[in-house]
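Submission sheet (multi-component)
Chains listed below:
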Amino acid sequence: MRPLKLQVEDLHKSFLRSGSAFKVLDGINLEVGAGEFVAIIGPSGCGKTTLLNIIGSLVKPDAGRLWLDGQPVPDCQGHIAYMQQKDLLLPWRKVLDNAILGLEVEGVPRKQACQRAHALLRHFGLAGFQSAYPNQLSGGMRQRVALARTLLLEKPLWLLDEPFGALDAMTRRHLHHYLLQARQQAPATTLLVTHDIEEALVLADRVGVLTARPARIKAILNVELPRPRRVTAPEFVTLKEELFELLQEERLETMIYDAA
Ligand SMILES: Nc1ncnc2c1ncn2[C@@H]1O[C@H](COP(=O)(O)OP(=O)(O)O)[C@@H](O)[C@H]1O
Ligand SMILES: [Mg+2]
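Outcome: structure written.
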């Protein structure tokens, strides 16, 4: 599996609300190099999920273009693994059957799919829950099943929408480590949405900050720190402060807008 370069060019999107256009994306330009890890942060409701939905071809843009290694993205959906913000587990399927869903759709024989899923679920601390149903799991466990389902697909582009949001701090750290290791073994181009500045800095090669809605790229920071990254390292703390300031400006923007 060869990682692919993603190019997002001048993406615009509005939704119709009470008969008028509600602008969400206002000209997003972004390039994620082959094998690169980019994190996107931005205020709540600014359009992060909409951006991933468009790349994942779940939502059509009003204008703009998307390329995966030079091919128009709508023609390359087979190369994309998208973990949506809502976990979308099927309530009538057990954990194992949810985890192998994507592989099943791709025609991987069940025995082979189960073997791969067993190993990953064990890694994710779900070994004893393979026969449980989603409604018997905590939010964090459901999220891990959804992440397993996404990573098992072994695609060259991962879109991850707040994949660790429901996890406790220790589990999150373990999964960060796992994700970085997995990318070392099979480098996938990765676009991660998170609201957690520290998470973005621990994981990504670059961090993109979105403005308050309608979203534009406000800034992109290079994170040139060796991994594993120490959150207490002075360079890390400086970048964290910088991102905090950038986000804070946009949060104030949102509050002023909401109050008007
Ligand atoms: N299908 C839709 N129809 C109308 N409004 C939508 C739709 N999807 C998202 N929105 C609105 O667009 C804005 C951005 O949503 P979203 O992309 O989910 O934000 P984020 O992920 O950054 O929190 C929100 O105000 C949301 O209510
Ligand atoms: Mg979202």
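Remark: The chain has a mean pLDDT of 94.
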